[in-house]
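Human: If only I could read backbone structure tokens as easily as an amino acid sequence. Take your time, and here it is.
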Amino acid sequence: MADGLPGGTSFMEDYTYDMATEPMQCLGAHMLEICPTIAAGRPSCEIHPLGIGGKEDPVRLVFDAPAGPAVNVTIVDLGDRFRMVLNEVQVAAPPEPLPKLPVARAVWQPLPDLATAAAAWIYAGGSHHPTFSQVLTTEHFEDFAEMIGSELVVIDGDTRLRDLRQQLRWNSAAL
């Protein structure tokens, strides 16, 4: 969907959470599979121990994603239908260098906030490995969901858990 558009899209993972600062943030990263289209600058190639799998130490791309709006989205198989779960996020520069995390990474604040977004993601059945995009928007996924007849749950700055839980119940009954 992002072909020809400026910006990037990549496989991602919620790596860890920073709940000690305000706003609370998420560090997204992955050992090897991150696409350099989301790099703020030129990625470096570095060799670091992997520590799992009994393989030789791999070459990794190391970089930070640029600050700005983004989305995390995943598709969930509910057995009788598919559901896309999307969370709008705001990417920020890492608060300090991350030399002990030699991988591609992005630091973001989930909207409306980490606690609400995490609960909403779990209620909706969101996966551990989403797609992260700084080029595709909620509108792109709304259009895509409409084209394929899929449910789309959007977690954004207006999300309220009581309303989201009710939406999920209605969706289950209607779909």
Notes: The beta strands are 9-11, 14-18, 25-30, 44-47, 59-64, 68-77, 82-92, 104-110, 131-133, 151-155. The longest strand covers residues 82-92.
